[in-house]
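Support request, please re-run this one:
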Amino acid sequence: MDPAALRAEFPVFERTAYLNAGTCGPLPRGAAQAVADVLAHAASDGRASAYFAALLEHRDHLRSSYAGLLRAATDDIALTTCTSEGIVRVLAALDLGPGDEVLTSDEEHPGLQGPLAAARRQRGIEIRVVAFAQIADAVGPRTKLVACSHVSWVNGRVVPDLSQLADDVPVLLDGAQGVGAVPTDVAALGCSFYAGPGQKWLCGPVGSGMLYVAPGWRDRLPATGPTYLNLADPAAGLDAVPQAGAARHDASALSLETLAATTASLGVLGDAGWSAVHERGAALAQQLADALGARGREIAPRDRTTLVSWQEPDPSAARELLAQAGVIVRDLPGTGLLRASVGAWNDASDLDRLLSALP
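Re-run finished. Output below.
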């Protein structure tokens, strides 16, 4: 891996120290060009058979690429628009009703909390919230689903081992801070479902993502609202049935523009080498955590991931101050924390710029 060459793929670093991939990753130049090319061809040639053929080709390529990142079979991957869409599709399809308990943690993002709260209002499920570090030991006889993060968005801790639950209680993992940021093996994680984004650590456009459905759940998770591309034979009309694999859960409409940009972004990172991308991001994050600690900042408990969160008296004001200095991070409302997302595209100059700008 050539770190300088990777960094050069991202125009944002010509101006800023961008440390916010936990929200949206930096967009590679090639992804922006891919969108421009698609739009130019669509404007000049129309959007007929060639456009649709390219769309299908990109879908197949993207499904395969996501499968490789998750160490899953291609047939077990659905293409979605974001992490939360995958979560919603799973919750809507599971047979959960009054009195069924869903176990979740105290460090979850609204992207999971919102769908869980809606299911509680609409279907009468019960939600039990426990400490993130204790979730593996908190499963009880009434637990019908465990739904939590792979990597905590608050502090970068990794979920405890849940693999022993796989046979008895399904596990739905929110992979928003996992896939692309750290090595991810869905079988080793023991999850039945893994929902992830394309716009964060995979540096794709907003409107991209994936859902993994474990083989044992392929026929147990019905498609909710399958449309044209979800059907095995759309021409069969009312007799049409959903596709056999996880493609039955694909988002109803993903534009060629989005697919082309996502493919281009994955190509940039894949060319750098995923193992090197993961290792460099984690190493730089640890370097930042050590430097902040040496300056007296209280670092939130974390694992070897790409997120570094620390206490600030006024996180929102600190974020604004850093932004004025060209350093892009985010504050986490209600936590007292400021968070930096450190990727392989960053370098020591970004960390130094952050440290120099802190009050």
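The chain has a mean pLDDT of 96. The two ends are 35 Å apart (CA to CA).
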